[in-house]
Amino acid sequence: MKLSNDVRETVQRRAQGACEYCRLPQEASILPHQVDHIIGRQHRGSDDVANLCLCCIHCNLKKGPNIASIDPETGILVALYHPRCHSWREHFTVAIEGTIQGLTAEGRATVQLLDMNGEDRVRLRALLLRRSRHP
Ligand SMILES: [Zn+2]
């Protein structure tokens, strides 16, 4: 079932136009941000706004239907960062050079799975940080 325009607008407004994983602002992306099912439909995740988040194309393509990954530091399987249940600042931090570091097992696993520190993504993030346009 397709999400309604009302639901999409609610998700975009709540996220203030930024990807809820890597925080890329919509205006800094050529491609439109998408509405992501945090728990995918394959896993019986619902279309309720409590299971939706705004997601840039880069994060969405890497996340796919995944809901868990391996923490690169401990090798343990953990659930991914959940934008509705977790606080971004408790799980991630942005370095001045533009990399995002995971502060927790969930944060580290999510950074790695979503390839948040891909070369082009870090370069753009550093530029936005210098211009104070990265939330
Ligand atoms: Zn993103």
Automatic annotation (TrEMBL):
Keyword terms: Endonuclease, Hydrolase, Nuclease
Domain HNH nuclease: 6-61
ATP-binding in keyword set: no
Single GO term (MF): endonuclease activity
Organism encoding this protein: Sorangium atrum
InterPro entries: HNH (IPR002711), HNH_nuc (IPR003615), NA-targeting_endonuclease (IPR052892)
Coiled-coil residue spans: none
Protein name in the entry: HNH endonuclease signature motif containing protein
Keyword Ribosomal protein (UniProt): no
Pfam family, one: HNH
